[in-house]
Design brief:
Elements (H helix, E strand, L loop, with lengths): L1 H30 L6 E2 L4 E11 L5 E12 L4 E5 L2 E2 L2 H18 L1 E2 L3 E8 L11 H12 L8 E3 L2 E2 L5 E3 L3 H10 L4 E5 L4 E4 L4 E7 L2 E7 L3 E4 H5 L2 E5 L2 H8 L1
Parallel strand pairs: 1-6, 4-7, 8-11, 11-16
Antiparallel strand pairs: 2-3, 3-7, 4-5, 9-10, 12-15, 13-14
Helix pairs in contact: 2-3
């Protein structure tokens, strides 16, 4: 009888030590700033949204982006009309996948993320699709659906900040034509200079003529010019509030 009591006591002690070690490890991990990433198993979700691009003639086009997340080996693939993407677009896709993983706290090393860009632009190059890739990957990882009247454009850095976007006037016109209600752009790019004209302001100094050449223009809101609401956002996290 005493032996059974002793065995039970030892078993309880071992369980207590094990639980204590586990809790200590978790608490130390949290105190050291380590983040715990969730792992998804047997997961599959597809998100469809739109993005804007610029064709070879400088015109804006609206195209479809279909983002698939499924069990795999951590691959990030880009498919443009069944053709291989250029190196900058592939880089943007990898940055977007990393940003989505950090935002959702989901480990993507056991998942494959496939971006299917269906565009009539002929060539899709550059990094401006990075922001919509990140947004769509976040939605796919969280089993969410994105609003179909919001479009975003801009390249992103690894911390999820929107840093640049080109061809915004053409993209705004295309977004409006594509029935978008809202266009999200990087901070500071919602207005652009147009109607640039060359001017000279000349004067004489010690018998010599000096001229200051300038190209003043008109600062115009892109949204007002094309009749679409344009909102500047700093990060992908901020953009998500408009898409959900």
């Amino acid at each position: 009888m005493e032996r059974k009591v002793l065995l039970v006591a030892v078993l309880v002690l071992l369980i207590g030590i094990s639980v204590g070690i586990t809790l200590t490890t978790l608490l130390l991990g949290q105190s050291n700033g380590e983040e715990v990433f969730q792992q998804l198993t047997d997961y599959e979700h597809t998100v469809k949204t739109k993005f804007v691009a610029v064709d070879q003639k400088g015109g804006g086009v609206v195209a479809d982006l279909i983002t698939e997340v499924r069990g795999g080996h951590g691959l990030v693939l880009v498919n443009i009309n069944n053709l291989l993407a250029d190196i900058s677009t592939q880089y943007s896709a990898r940055v977007a996948a990393s940003v989505a993983s950090n935002f959702t706290k989901i480990d993507v090393s056991t998942l494959d993320i496939i971006y299917n860009l269906q565009s009539d632009a002929g060539v899709v190059a550059g990094q401006s699709a990075g922001s919509i890739m990140a947004v769509s990957a976040i939605a796919a990882l969280q089993n969410q659906t994105l609003r179909d009247d919001v479009i975003i454009t801009g390249s992103i850095n690894p911390t999820g900040e929107l840093v640049d976007a080109g061809g915004l006037r053409a993209k705004a016109a295309a977004a409006k034509k594509g029935n978008a209600r809202l266009l999200l752009v990087p901070e500071g790019s919602g207005s652009q200079m147009i109607n640039l004209t060359r001017t000279e302001d000349c004067g004489f100094y010690q018998g010599k003529e000096y001229c200051i050449i300038d190209y003043p223009g008109e600062l115009v809101s892109i949204g007002e010019e094309f009749g679409i609401e344009v909102v500047e956002v700093e990060t992908v996290a901020e953009a998500m509030r408009y898409f959900l």
